[in-house]
Amino acid sequence: MHTRSDEFESATASLAADGWCVIQGLMSPAETLALTNECLAMHDAQQLKPARVGADRDQTLLRGDSTHWFESDALSAPQQAFADRIDTLRIELSRSLMLGLVDSESHYAVYQPGAGYARHLDQLRNNDARVVSAVFYLNDAWQEAQGGALRLHLADHSHRDIYPHAGTLLLFLSAQFEHEVLPATRDRMSIACWMRQRAIGATC
Ligand code: OGA
Ligand code: MN
């Protein structure tokens, strides 16, 4: 079990120094597989909905994923295990870096072959609630030749490509890093999560 209070010490230090980091081992392989299987089953049952919703038709051009938001009062066992670990990480990051992270929101996302998400920032206009973006990947035996990298754009105009291997968790500061999802040749599954502060001037 994960009981050491310094478990996330190096992640915290990297986030403080660079604004982003990659963590392995947030979930056990069995827990990761349970999330993968649930996401697959929900996708097969068409329970994920195109992220481009409502009146904002431009979203169709921006992003091609389908999502299912986790409901905090109706979490499945695999989702509860994920939420518990994300809470542990959130509380540790918030304490160490004084980020005031009060809660989080998460959704499954499936990008079908050819779908991506154009370069964007995760902080929504007029709402600064999202402080830390966390993306947890669910794809067994991903090969880089299959594409699907999360391309993180750094302040010096270089970029880093993070591939969506099962068990990889990417963290970055939501307000600082533009990023994009490059298209892949196979279905690409993830959990996108945002650790939030109490928003100033938010309407919801
Ligand atoms: C997002 C996002 C990245 C990914 O949902 O905002 O950037 O790798 N997702 O799924
Ligand atoms: Mn994003």
List the helices and strands and how they pair.
Blueprint (H helix, E strand, L loop, with lengths): L8 H10 L1 E5 L4 H16 L4 E2 L8 H4 L2 E5 L7 H21 L3 E11 L5 E4 L9 E8 L12 E4 L5 E4 L5 E6 L5 E3 L6 E10 L7
Antiparallel strand pairs: 1-9, 2-3, 3-4, 4-11, 5-10, 6-9, 6-11, 7-8, 7-10
The chain binds N-oxalylglycine and manganese (II) ion.
N-oxalylglycine binds next to strand 10 and strand 11.
Can you describe this structure?
This protein is an alpha+beta fold and 204 residues long. It has one domain: q2cbj1_9rhob like domain (Jelly Rolls), CATH 2.60.120. It is 25% helix and 30% strand. Helix 2 packs across helix 4. The chain binds N-oxalylglycine and manganese (II) ion. N-oxalylglycine binds next to strand 10 and strand 11.
Structure in a nutshell:
By secondary structure, the protein is an alpha+beta fold. It has four helices and eleven strands, in the order H-E-H-E-H-E-H-E-E-E-E-E-E-E-E. The strands form two sheets. It has a seven-stranded antiparallel β-sheet.
**Whole-number count of domains:** 1
Order of helices and strands: HEHEHEHEEEEEEEE
- What is bound: which ligands? N-oxalylglycine, manganese (II) ion
Task: Give the mean pLDDT.
Answer: 93
User: CATH homologous superfamily name?
Assistant: q2cbj1_9rhob like domain
CATH topology: Jelly Rolls
Characteristics:
204 residues, 11 strands, 25% helix, globular, binds N-oxalylglycine, binds manganese (II) ion
